[in-house]
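Why does residue order matter? Because the sequence determines the fold. Keep that principle in mind as you read this record.
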Amino acid sequence: MTGTTTAGARLRTGNGGANRWVVLVVLCVSLLLVALDATVLHVAVPAVTEDLRPSGVELLWIVDAYPLVCAALLILFGTLGDRVGRRRVLLIGYGIFGVASLVAAFATTPHVLIGARALLGVGGAMIMPATLSILRAVFPDRRERATAIGIWTAVAAVGAATGPVLGGFLVEHFWWGSVFLINIPLMALILPAARWLLPESKGGADGPWDVLGALMAAAGVLGAVLGIKRLGAGDSILGIETAVPLVLGGALLALFVRRQRRREHPLIDMRMFARPAFSTSVGCIILAMLALVGLELIAVQYLQLVLGLSPLETGLRLLPLTFAAMAAGATGSFTLHRIGPRRMVGWGFVLTAAAVLLLTLMGQHDRPWLLTMGFVLLGFGLQTTLFAAYESMLSEAPPDQAGGAAAIGETSYQLGAGMGIAMLGSVMNAAYAPALASLSGVPGSAGSAASHSLGEAYQVADGLGGPAGAMVRSTARHSFVHGLHITLLVSAGLLLLGALAALRLPKVMECETAVADKCPGPRSPEVPLPASANRSPERSPGGTPTAAGSGRAGH
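Structure:
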């Protein structure tokens, strides 16, 4: 394994390493941009529709091109960064993100906007795993690294929550393209700052980079995520547009795993999954995101369509969830050190399940204190779980696989989010639709349309008017709340399943021998790491150890 350092070395030698926190600030700003762009477009969709007049399929791709491309390329660019330099990949990602933002801001046709969103996904896929792998490189002490991860994840929560609010403000006062244009000055500042401040590091450079394997992983993840999104949109699993991507994606991913197991120098060492802590953490990330994303979408519909809140009021109601997530991230390092990964992940799942069960008390009338308490518990519990799961997963990965491990974590995040929309959305529809499909005194076509969603039911009710319209509206509200309760119960069951899975995690926060006095606890001997993880620390050309090889790291 080899490693290099550049400008970042000047900072670390300048004042004993204190400026690694400056590096963290740069990485957090990078994450903030990517997280903002994932949600900032949502509130601009009506303005985009009015201006560009996209078809239904084009509008779907305008929204989905960014997350689809980003998820598909995470493994490719994460492992490429391990080979050619994580800082180099990050800087190129900044440039692509800035150019794509400029094109998107001034797009005049749906196809140009779709292409720009896809290019944003390329930039995002280069930025996300690189920030995590650089973070682990500059924080060799696991306790400090856990603090950095807590700050990093808190910033992610802020970015995701701020996106719709910022987007709504910009669309209201300027035009829809401004939601992309804000990236330009930020990129103009962060690119030179990152070039000067961030250290360069590489993982193992043995053997050729597996280009075919990287493309197989990209195509496989793209197919899987696309198929899952189609399920979430209500398509049948047997439909061509759903089944073909799922089957092809699954087959390519299976071939990718088989290829990696056989190669002497794989992109991702599959022996990492033999370590219970690593594989369990990946599963916990998927379960946590599965519950979170599906519940957030349903909660937004409940707040707006059942309680009649405006988009701004809805955003304000969800702020307690964001603040609680920030608090969990800020205190995550302390909690992890005190109680260990097993109890932190397990009790995080239990707390989240309790919050979900509390929210089953929601009805057709507004209960602000109940919602606030439920959202606070939900945000704190889920962020606690995600923090400990990410930290444990990447701490089990060998240093030269930092980019690949980060990509696995982010891909798991995306897959869990897609599965959550598909699974919980299907449960919701199954519980909601039957009561609307066969209403007496209502035309069959109207009942069928109303059974698709609560929003469509309101449109049908307005069109019918009179007693029939009132019946459709009342029945739809009752059915939605009933479906919400069923969905919450299913979600609670999945969360408790995650709590049981967490029993396979280590009891204590294990560290390397070099920092064992700061973070006590023996290393678990279940499965030996690959030989690359036991090599001597990486050294720069001058002979001093570099951050990239100085210790195991977390997310």
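Residues 311-359 form the longest helix (49 residues).
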